[in-house]
Automatic annotation (TrEMBL):
The keyword RNA-binding does not apply. One of its GO terms (molecular function) is DNA-binding transcription factor activity. Pfam families: GyrI-like (PF06445), HTH_18 (PF12833). It comes from the Bacteria. Keywords: DNA-binding, Transcription, Transcription regulation. Residues 8-106 form the HTH araC/xylS-type domain. This is AraC family transcriptional regulator.
Length: 286
């Protein structure tokens, strides 16, 4: 089953249970994938978190019910998961720009988010630069932080972590230790679902031959067949766009699957704000 098919099954499950208190675990099970990968790939393909999709869809349907005028506002609020009329009104106004009462009286425009239907773009108009290579296990040294994936907290925390590393000189310290088989600063994402639900470890590190380094943590990246994708362009958009193309175009048509394990972003020397900047994405595949 392709990633697109898996994501569509999860979307269909959410739509069938919009009025229920469904968990992320139940949704990811419908996609037949791990919770971490489901939330990550969903965000890449749709540009929103799972929680945002559910909230937008529920408030869209709530607005449609209110416009019919057949039920009380408080009843509609409870139906769509809000415990108080006040919390419902705040969320409703944030999405639609008007209050539930104004919708009831046919004043103002509403903002509708329709049911998602994912499609695969297999035209190949824009070529993707990649190679698949086998590499032995190697060690990295660096900094590690744990992030929750709930409500996209990792998407907020990881850029802050990079800002700190780039600001306090840790990036230069890591580059001095970069004696291993991968050149450049590494952003490494490690799924911790088996140990701690909804959490990942994120490393900013450098590959190094040798033992431990004072003040830095160490991890072994296991032997794997890596699909290595070239990324051309300024950060962060070039990296984000390539991730999206990998899962919406390359995986569905390549015959490869994600093998699990750490995923790497490799940042080479140069100006990351330049349109000529080169970086890489490494994904273990089978």
């Amino acid at each position: 089953m392709s990633w697109i098919q898996s994501m569509q099954k999860a979307i269909d499950f959410m739509e069938d249970h919009l009025l229920e208190d469904i968990s992320m675990e139940e949704i990811s099970q419908a996609a037949h994938t791990s919770l971490f990968h489901f939330q990550r790939i969903f965000s890449l393909l749709t540009d929103m978190t799972v929680a945002e999709y559910l909230r937008r869809r529920r408030l869209t349907l709530a607005a449609q019910e209110l416009r019919k005028g057949e039920r009380k506002i408080i009843d509609v609020a409870y139906t769509y998961g809000y415990e108080t009329p006040e919390s419902f009104s705040r969320a409703f106004r944030k999405q639609h720009g008007i209050s539930p009462r104004e919708v009831r009286s046919y004043r103002g425009k509403m903002t509708a988010y329709n049911r998602l239907v994912l499609q695969v773009n297999l035209k190949g108009a824009d070529p993707m630069e990649y190679e698949v290579v086998e590499k032995e296990a190697f060690q990295v040294v660096g900094m590690k932080e744990e992030f929750s994936c709930v409500n996209g907290e990792n998407l907020k925390g990881i850029p802050q972590m990079w800002g700190k590393v780039n600001g306090d000189g840790t990036d230069q310290k890591l580059l001095k230790e970069n004696t291993g088989p991968v050149k450049g600063l590494l952003g490494i994402c490690v799924d911790k679902t088996a140990e701690k639900k909804n959490h990942i470890d994120y490393w900013i590190a450098a590959a190094r031959d040798g033992g431990e380094v004072e003040g830095l943590e160490m991890m072994e990246v296991p032997k794997a067949n890596w699909a290595i994708f070239g990324v051309h362009g300024a950060m962060p958009h070039a990296m984000q766009d390539t991730w999206k193309k990998i899962y919406s175009e390359w995986f569905p048509s390549s015959g490869y699957e994600n093998a699990g394990g750490p995923e790497l972003e490799v940042y080479h020397d140069g100006n990351p704000n330049s349109e000529d900047y080169y970086s890489e994405i490494w994904i273990p595949v089978k």
